[in-house]
Amino acid sequence: MTGRLHSTGTATPTRYEPTQAETILTRLSPHSTRLHKTDADLQALREAGLASAISHNPRPRIAIYAMVREGQDPAVRLAVARGLAVRNYWPLAQAPAVDFTGMTDPATRPQLARLLASLDRRAITGIVTMSRADVTHLNDYYEETLRRIHARGGFVALATAETDI
């Protein structure tokens, strides 16, 4: 907007204000407004949270977590996660948690919610799983879950890389 009274140097910049509908839609579906992260970005995010937590507490108290379909045996997933904890000398602070929900939104899983509450109480410092599939295969939900855990001062440790099942 330039003219007799305004030059490009004095014109006030226009600022876009979201409409009420846009604000509501963003709150209802926040994932649609985010940039999508790659598996490598998410691995870096997870590893940064792990490194930060370990730097503050070299012997973190952990909980082992697995998510399986109803009727599926979680024994292998729990054993692999426990192996990672044993190799790192991380003490198990509570019984392993298993959600038999299949691939659902992590925010709706009762055992994962119990572990997040344990993070809030400082009863545990981290959650160890066999793979990213125990959290979710969807990048947006994975990032959101990692950020929730990191905001509580916790971490997620995986026995396999983000791209492995």
Largest sheet: 4 strands, parallel
User: What is the CATH T-level topology?
Assistant: Rossmann fold
- Span between N and C termini? 55 Å
Write down the secondary-structure element order.
Answer: HHEHEHEHE
Which CATH-level-2 architecture? 3-Layer(aba) Sandwich
In CATH, what is the homologous superfamily?
Answer: Resolvase, N-terminal catalytic domain
Strand order of the largest sheet: 2-1-3-4
Number of strand segments: 4
Q: In one word, what is the shape?
A: globular
Please give the domain count: 1
- Helix fraction? 25-40%
| β-sheet strand percentage | 5-15%
- CATH C-level: Alpha Beta
Number of helices: 5
**Which stretches are poorly predicted, pLDDT < 50 over at least 5 residues?**
1-16
* Computed structural class: alpha/beta
- The Cα radius of gyration reads 21 Å
Mean pLDDT across all amino acids:
82
